[in-house]
């Protein structure tokens, strides 16, 4: 991956300074919370309303990145507070699922990497063991969700799971026990085969018969329709396969990440404002800034994996353009609102549009921290 130009480096550092200035004020007035979104510009608190919500690790992750950026102890204390609050989730099996990765990687694993404390190790290993237990030998997939609201999801796997696999890779590295990694690799191989289409677009949900392992159907999930191309799913694919490549050294995963990225870049609007689905009707202007931020962070990881390969530059260039577009057009820089990114979306068909979502902010910060070579890395 090429080095940033002077101009690019200066922009990255200036943007991180703006984030530091805003988030110092915002964090001071939101102590002891786990935010998901904002209501009238102010963060909500999922630690009270939904302690097992899948996004509950991202605020902790954001706090760790801000601690790395600033050295301000307030951010570290808030990150530890989030990790403590997640214990309620760790004691609730129905609240545990494949998203154990999203919850305990940016909190317990990140902290354990820094501080080598036993408590974080214990939490992350409990989460990894639980996640490994979701592997289904028939079909070689990790089950995504539980049967909440009485929907039978025994055979559900989703593209997002590629981002949770690093919890298993980490557990194998930590324990020297290969089982966790073997499960991650088996799932990644299934995802390569069943989720990624010939043109680089991806399915959101693949349903397996949980007894025979046969694929019974694919679902549009949070995207526009069956066979469409949900942009956040595309971003989880770029990023997740790049991570599997970094952990295993397997070229096939990097090639899969690049194939998904090439499709995304071929569908990217001239504005670099990312829709909710690359195949949504042309006259619909629904947008998702989280997909832009995650795509950018994933492209950086892909470029890093390609190393000196000439191909890496086009992915880094696209990542920079996505991040600059967010900075110029989709970030609230004033301290009157708690969030950074605007125009985020939960899904295409629901009513969660044009809102702030915590993981949009997290991946925006993470991507910039990686470009500044300051990021706390899970991997
Ligand atoms: N992992 C669920 C989502 O991306 O909305």
Based on the model shown, name its key terms.
binds glycine, 53% helix, mainly alpha, Glycosyltransferase, 14 helices, 379 residues, two-stranded antiparallel ribbon, globular, three-stranded antiparallel β-sheet
- State the separation between the terminal residues, measured CA to CA: 17 Å
Beta strand count: 7
Give the neighbour order of strands across the main sheet.
Answer: 5-6-7
Binned strand content = 5-15%
Write out the distinct hetero groups bound to the structure: glycine
Q: What is the number of domains? A: 1
Spans of at least 5 consecutive residues whose pLDDT stays below 50 are none
Element pattern in H and E: HEEHHHHHHEEEHHEEHHHHH
Largest sheet entry? 3 strands, antiparallel
Helical element count?
14
Shape: globular
CATH topology: Glycosyltransferase
* Rounded average pLDDT: 97
Would you give an account of this structure?
The protein has 379 residues and is mostly helical. The protein is 53% helix and 5% strand. The protein has 14 helices and seven strands. The protein has helices at 6-28, 46-49, 58-70, 73-85, 87-90, 100-115, 118-132, 165-175, 179-194, 231-248, 251-267, 289-306, 312-330, 358-371; strands at 38-39, 42-43, 135-136, 141-142, 156-158, 205-208, 215-219. The chain has a single domain (6-371), classed as Glycosyltransferase (Alpha/alpha barrel). Strands 5-6-7 form a three-stranded antiparallel beta sheet, with no helix packed on it. It has a two-stranded antiparallel ribbon with strand order 1-2. Strands 3-4 form a two-stranded antiparallel ribbon. It starts with 5 loop residues before the first helix and ends in an 8-residue tail after the last helix. The chain is globular. The structure holds glycine. Glycine is lined by residues 160, 222, 232. Glycine binds at residues 160, 222, 232.
